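User: For a teaching handout, I'd like to show students what a predicted protein-ligand complex looks like in token form. I'll give you the sequence and the SMILES for NAP. Please answer with just the structure.
Assistant: Understood, here is the input followed by the structure.
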Amino acid sequence: MKIAILHGPRNLTIEEQPLDTSNLAADEIWIETQISAFKIGTDRGNYEGAEDVPGAPTYPRWVGDSNLGGVRGVGSAVTRVKVGDVVVTRQPHQSEYIMKESGSLVKVPNGVDPEDAVYAHLYALSAHCYRKALFQPGENVAVVGVGVLGLGAIALGPLFGGRVAAIANSPLRLEMAAQMGAHAGFLSDDPNLKDKLDAFTNGVGIDLVILTANPWPAFQTALDIVRPNGRVSIVSLLGRGETPLNFNPLPMELFYIKGISLFAVSGPAGYLFPNSGSFPFHNQDRWAADRAAEHVLSLMADGRLEPKRLITHRFHYSDMVNAYEMAYSREKSMLGVIFNWRE
Ligand SMILES: NC(=O)c1ccc[n+]([C@@H]2O[C@H](COP(=O)([O-])OP(=O)(O)OC[C@H]3O[C@@H](n4cnc5c(N)ncnc54)[C@H](OP(=O)(O)O)[C@@H]3O)[C@@H](O)[C@H]2O)c1
């Protein structure tokens, strides 16, 4: 099998590794990758040599975690999938692999385009930005940063009943946000940003900011534009790969006086009604990652959610380095990127 391995900053290779598919254990599933999607933000940091994310592996390491493939074989005790099913997993960029049935895996419903479905887990994370911060239908939302996760938040917001403004650092990304359904879009360095958001919200203000960008200026924008007593949901890895701070990130006037709440988009979201029945393979978290991905897939099956609308590049896996180099150079025209693993 072939797998992408990052050996150090800007040193990515596709390597051959052995995989014995002839003796699957009872709980194992053999999956052959069809396509995988580029999770640009985190992977670009890894590629650039930014500090390791705590708990994540260091070099040499795998990359990617959005994989769509066909089930080629199942162990004798497997019940979740059968040979021929198409599944999305959070496995790295690789041509085939064996995983445990208890791992993160969701079946793709019939009729969902693979180029949409491969985004199920990434968009589930975008959905988590809403759930973790206790979003309520009708609230005004500003999404700061229009990368893959920001775009997911923009696409999901209207489906969840939000009014969504995109805040980007390039006009091209604002156009993409509009294509994905943003109600409005503004540049983050617009000197009249707050006035424009006041007009957008009829003076109510931004109830929830979803922050998807690492740089500190984006954080300052988030604190600045959220209304008093509002919330900021932070999915970005703040400050990762950025120059260290030379200012107070939580000045009194923007944090204490405004009385805002900051939410880290990790760990389970608070939920008042946990499932009391038994969920095979998962704990009782109603919005555990696979449950959230299933919901996202159901929106795709309904034709309401279409990540492939913003697929800007398709690469054969053997050209993967070119995609990482484009991300390295912050290519604004590149957003959705699919790697094709068929020979
Ligand atoms: N919490 C989690 O579990 C989790 C999981 C996955 C990813 N993440 C993190 O989530 C973040 C988003 O991921 P992604 O793939 O969508 O990243 P991304 O592609 O880097 O998207 C962020 C976008 O925000 C832009 N930006 C930077 N500064 C800005 C500013 N001041 N105002 C407006 N936009 C600004 C960036 O532009 P430039 O390219 O010009 O900087 C980029 O286009 C990343 O930090 C990633 O590491 C977190």
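For the handout, you might add this sentence: Residues 39-42, 45, 125, 144-150, 167-169, 173, 188, 212-215, 217-218, 221, 235-237, 265-266, 330 surround NAP (CB under 6 Å).
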